[in-house]
């Protein structure tokens, strides 16, 4: 049998340790991020939808100055972003098989007026065949022409 002082010491230790213990830090639940390949499709679709709205607005606006005023008032976008949105939408707005496989920067580069049509068609064929085409490949293809 143990002496009573050992039991008292153990009880005191237990009580004092709960009083002076550091508070437990709750671990935050880390939300798993979706892969970029999944979120990219929704982002590209949203940008193309915005491009459609801008194209409709452009058709209804009598001149560039008025169009710029309306766009700045309604959408708060830079002129370069507006032209990219409209250009990508004109070229690839109805081609989800392309827009779902490239980043927005890749779509902007692929729809560029500086890219020759035959180079663009070649890249599109490779994309549709399942090849992974990055923005740097698109830019490099345009530079090689």
What does this structure look like?
- This protein has helices at residues 4-20, 36-60, 64-74, 79-92, 96-99, 104-110, 117-128, 135-144.
- The chain is mainly α.
- The model has no long low-confidence stretch (mean pLDDT 87).
For the largest beta-sheet, the strand count, sense and barrel status come to: none
Oligomer: single chain
Pairing-aware structural class of the strands and helices? mainly alpha
Instruction: Give the beta-strand count.
Output: 0
What are the low-pLDDT stretches, counting only 5+ consecutive residues below 50? none
Percent range of helical residues:
55-70%
Shape: elongated
Tally of alpha and pi helices:
8
Write the element-wise H/E pattern from the N-terminal end onward.
HHHHHHHH
- In angstroms, what is the radius of gyration? 30 Å
Average pLDDT number? 87
How widely separated are the two ends? 94 Å
Approximate strand percentage:
under 5%
